[in-house]
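Worked example

This section walks through a single chain of length 241. The input is the sequence exactly as stored; nothing has been trimmed or padded.
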Amino acid sequence: MSDYFCASGVRRARHTLLGGLLVALTCGSVLADQNPRDPYEGFNRAMFATNEVIDKYAAKPVAQVYDNAVPLPVKASVGNFFGNAGDLWIGVNSALQGKFGDAGIDLGRLLVNSTVGIFGLFDVASELGLERHDEDFGQTLAVWGVDGGAYLYWPVLGPRNVRDTVGFAVGAYADPVRQVRPVSVRNSMAALRFVDIRASLLPSDRVVEEAALDKYAYIRDAYLQRRRNQVFDGRPPRLDD
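Given that input, the structure is written out below as tokens.
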């Protein structure tokens, strides 16, 4: 009888040891895989899930109706109009980053498209060889040496880091659409721009769904890589392993 209890105790101890080893290996794997730029992953995943619900039942259906109902030339004109409105802020950020040549092109685009292009409805500037740039205040802060900080995911706004969250807030304050009055017209323009942007992203939905085993991680890594490329104008320095 004593041998039975002894053998049973050895088996229990062996199982406990193996179980503890498995837990240790699992936890070690989780910690090893955690992205150091995403220290608030639990919060971000919760916000990501919230955004998925908002998008599924509100933003995406409206964007799909807009995409199917509005003729392509009209959608192109809407995108051109809001793109033209943003060229002024792009030019300001180009100048703040010391890219004065680009700033001149940005302001030239604004002048040409606002006149010949009929208030930006037609992108005549691109046809004339004036390249559209992609600058914002988050990139300006990066050029000034401000670190990106932790990755964050906001409902509706989507992925940002701390620096780009501040940059977005400053950009929203400087947005020309914000100055439109009456308020009802301003809000309608803001809503139209949001729907137009969401509609332009519809083709990428299937790509993300099919390519990503973990959609959250896929979007996070794509965002961080894209922002790094934008900050360095497509020529980021090599990262250490």
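What to look for: The longest helix spans residues 2-33.
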